[in-house]
Amino acid sequence: MRKLAYTGLKVFGVEIPPTVAIGDDFHLAHGGVGVVLSQGTIIGNCVKIFQGVTLGFADEYLPMEQLPEHHLTVERIGRIVVEDDVVIGAGAKVLFKYGQTLVVGRGAVIGANAVVLSSVPPGEIWAGVPARKVGINAFFPSRGRSDHSSAVGAEDVDGRLQSFLTSALDIDL
Fold first, then answer.
1. How far from each other are the two terminal CA atoms of the chain, in whole angstroms?
2. Peptide bond into 122 cis (omega under 30)
3. Does position 166 have pLDDT exceeding 70, yes or no?
4. Rg of the chain over all Cα atoms, to the nearest angstrom
5. How many Å apart are CA 51 and CA 64, to the nearest integer?
6. Under 8 Å between Cβ of 115 and 56
7. CATH superfamily of 2-169
């Protein structure tokens, strides 16, 4: 997995750690160049992420190396959950704070270059710096929230990433 992740990072500038759970029909538009996903991120089904997107940790200034190891779990640090049918525009940043689970709700749309610092309700369109609600996704009927059961476990990421890289590079790894 490390060699595969390294190849993806070097070829496309994509960083997807093995702890990221990815659902079906995940699409990295334009090769996903510059996409960075934080450890423990959960991606639902039918999610499209454009180039230059970061789903990550906002509190980089915290001295993590000084925290006890039991404080360095995903449950304590936090994570991002992207529910089903979400679109995240080019250059957008979705950033969680220490201890926060930031949820991008089902059917939400994040505009290009938006900086999202709080959870986005299902079916809303958010844009700006900092991002705020600018509309409703008229193409997505409200169907309630996902329970994340559609996302696959981290053990399946290797196969999905290898499949993605194989098809994008048109070579066998």
1. 11
2. no
3. no
4. 16
5. 28
6. no
7. Hexapeptide repeat proteins (2.160.10.10)
Helix (H, G, I), strand (E, B) or coil at 61: coil
Q: What is the mean pLDDT of the chain?
A: 80
CB 172 within 8 A of CB 150: no
CB of 12 within 8 A of CB of 33?
yes
Tokens of 63: 């001295």
- Which tokens sit at 34? 């510059």
The answer to whether 124 and 105 are in contact (CB under 8 A) is yes
Confidence (pTM): 0.75
In tens, the pLDDT along 35-79 reads 999 888 999 999 999 999 999 988 766 666 666 565 556 666 889
- As given in the structure block, the two tokens for residue 77 are 């640090």
Higher-confidence residue of 76 and 136: namely 136
Using CA atoms, how far apart are residues 110 and 122, in angstroms rounded to an integer?
Answer: 11
Which residue ranges make up each domain of the chain? Answer: 2-169
Answer whether 29's CB lies under 8 Å from 68's CB: no
